[in-house]
Specification:
The protein is built from 5 helices and no strands. It is an all-alpha fold. It has one domain.
Length: 114
């Protein structure tokens, strides 16, 4: 498999910046990886916090144990996200796409003369 394709696939399926690790472009790999992990941790923290709140309400008996009602509350977590969580989600998508494209282009430039 050609290196540009491999670098793009690493960034697409492993972690944003993984393709740059493959190309030994460590500073940019660290930037992509750190920012994407920060976004993932922020989004995960929000989802865990909201899910725990729903579980606590079920345990306290405020929400009946009915699949339809519980799924409505869980759906609310994903549809009524605060602005900062939406920004983190869109930022993660942008970082991921930029990482894929940048890894591919960087590999093309690096191996153009070889």
């Amino acid at each position: 498999m050609k290196i540009p394709i491999k670098a793009a696939l690493f960034s697409a399926f492993i972690l944003p910046g993984a393709g740059h690790w493959l190309l030994r472009r460590y500073p940019i790999a660290i930037i992509y990886s750190v920012f994407s992990l920060i976004a993932v941790l922020y989004i995960s923290g929000f989802v865990i916090y909201e899910t725990q709140a729903i579980v606590d309400e079920i345990v306290q008996g405020k929400i009946p144990v009915d699949n339809g009602i519980v799924s409505t509350f869980i759906e609310r977590v994903y549809t009524q996200r605060p602005f900062n969580v939406r920004v983190a989600s869109y930022g993660l998508a942008v970082i991921w796409l930029l990482s894929i494209v940048h890894a591919y282009i960087s590999a093309l430039k690096k191996f153009k003369h070889s």
